Amino acid sequence: MTWTFPLVAELLSLHGLAVMVGLLIYVLASHALKQRRHPAAAVGWVMVMVLLPYVGLPLYLLFGTRKLVHSGNHPPLAAPAGNIRGEGAWARKLAAAMGQPPVAEYANLRIHADGAQAQRALWEVIDSAERELVVCTFILGNDEFGDALVARLVSRARAGVRVRFMLDGVGRWIGGYRNFNAMKAAGVHVGLFVPLLHSPLRGRTNLRDHRKIVVADGARLWCGGRNLAAEYFTGSAAQKPWQDLTFDLQGALARQAGELFERDWTFATGLPPADIAHADPAPAEPFGQVIASGPDQSDDTVHALLVAGCFNARHRIIAATPYFVPDEVLLMALTQAAWRGVAVDLILPRRSNHLMADHVRHRALRDLAAAGGRVWFVPYMNHAKAIVIDDMLALAGSLNLDSRSLFLNYEMMIAFYAGEDVRRFAGWLETQREKATLYEPHVPGLMRELSEGLVLWLGFQL
Predict the structure, then answer these.
(1) Is 4 helix (H, G, I), strand (E, B) or coil?
(2) What's the CATH fold of domain 301-459?
(3) What region does 259 belong to: left with phi over 0, alpha with psi -120 to 50, or beta?
(4) Per CATH, which fold does 102-284 belong to?
(5) How far is residue 346's CA from residue 368's CA, in Å, rounded to a whole number?
(6) Span 363-411, pLDDT tens digits
(7) Is 9 exposed, middle or buried (0-12, 13-18, 19+ CB in 10 A)?
(8) In what side-by-side order are the strands of the sheet with 162-168?
(9) Which pTM value belongs to this model?
């Protein structure tokens, strides 16, 4: 047994070397790439590097990058901040400082009351395309709705329209695997955003494209929270329809969303970008703005707007999200708004389709309720994503109020600034709240506290 101690010492030495190499790579890469991380994520990576460096280092090299642009490199201001005036100017100034595109005018905004109306509007936008149609989604259902959508895209392609369809590489499997050969043969251009098997130069597997964009001829936009599957619209024999929020509009704002699609398409396919440069005149009211969030942005844009919105709110904040797992900064901003007397209302499904998110959300919900915020549970799956702050800002689109959506996914929200339309979104949210019951927090036991903390730590998307 005399060989045991030298062998153990050698193994410990090799383990220590692996730990040092892993931590050194982690620190140098985080510093060089300016990867700002949630403390839970940072602690998680360090613990994995120390305990299992042989597993942790390969995982970090595959999944550790959160931003694909340097966080310290801000693009030029989208608009001169000093020229921005009026109600809610803080939001437009902040968006400009983070390099978001300038506001653009729109017309004929329709907020869809239910899935049937959303489907009719989607078919209208698709069928209206005469030259160019772009579609981006996280999930395409392998179901009756998905079949109908594919048939419409094929029909427009055969009519001479240039049709491009982009699907997230992981979402392709979530909605049910579909073969695209028939679509391609009909002339539809199909792109997969970071497939499961891909070169690491083409993006990170844990950074998913969650944006929902449909643009016809650069002039009509359909977007929001709905994926392109049956449960998001009218349901099926096996699945009741979910409640969700989508809308459509016309005007320069639609082209702005199309420009975001162009950048994503170039990243996903490697094809050269189209010429998307436009010089629009100063927009007339009403106007809105595409707010892109994700690894392609230097800053956590929507998160920054939400935090700033909480501190600028004077009367009310009302929001709907299917999952509520905010970081500490956003939760603090919401609770402080409630402390100041701002009416904070949060609408959630009583049970969502993610049990872990439902379990851990109570820690944040208890804090919000203790500060005076009101949490409302609707008795159905509500997949809508929208936030309204006073009468000065409405944000609607694809982003959930959880850490994956806020910090990792590619997301798109539309910021609306016209008071009349902001109130229309608030009215849609109020309609949902009228169907809800008020959440009553309970003091958690020790096991509940431990299980919430453990799931939050282990489940945080690194």
Answers:
(1) helix
(2) Endonuclease; Chain A (3.30.870)
(3) alpha
(4) Endonuclease; Chain A (3.30.870)
(5) 9
(6) 999 999 999 999 999 999 999 999 999 999 999 999 999 988 999 899 9
(7) exposed
(8) 107-111, 246-250, 220-224, 213-216, 132-137, 162-168, 189-193
(9) 0.86
